[in-house]
């Protein structure tokens, strides 16, 4: 179990540190501060799919690491700003973050989405 677990753990990536923040994978920036980057998802699942990440590695919403709640506040300021822009332009926004097995990349990230059609009567 040890070897396969180690292999599985090394396969768990931090796309944000390894690719987006390092510049290895180019991203289209939506908003940026000294501590936070918001960019269009590189493989979007929705008509509008923006990712917001702290520039400093932070494992997750539950494990804020050294950045602590001050960094979380910085991230949420950008999440709010991006969500407001998406809502303004499209009439709705969805904000999601994942934990544990749901969190594919082990770097705290927030998805700001417009999923497409609005519920009937709200368009």
How does this model look, in words?
This protein has 123 residues and is an alpha+beta fold. Helices cover 32% and strands 20% of the residues. A hairpin with a 7-residue loop joins strand 2 and strand 3. The radius of gyration is 16 Å and the shape is globular.
Task: Offer a concise description of the structure.
By secondary structure, this protein is an alpha+beta fold.
User: Structural class, judged by helices and strands?
Assistant: alpha+beta
What is the residue-averaged pLDDT? 89
- Uncertain runs: 1-10
Task: Give me the Rg, rounded.
Answer: 16 Å
Number of separate strands: 5
The main sheet comes to: 5 strands, antiparallel
Element string (H = helix, E = strand): HHEEEHEE
Shape verdict: globular
- Strand portion: 15-25%
Helix content: 25-40%
Order the strands across the largest sheet as they lie in space.
1-2-3-5-4
Blueprint of the fold:
Layout: H1 2-11, H2 15-20, E1 29-32, E2 36-40, E3 48-54, H3 68-90, E4 94-97, E5 110-114
Antiparallel strand pairs: 1-2, 2-3, 3-5, 4-5
Task: List descriptors.
single chain; 123 residues; alpha+beta; 5-stranded antiparallel beta sheet; 3 helices; 32% helix; globular; disordered N terminus
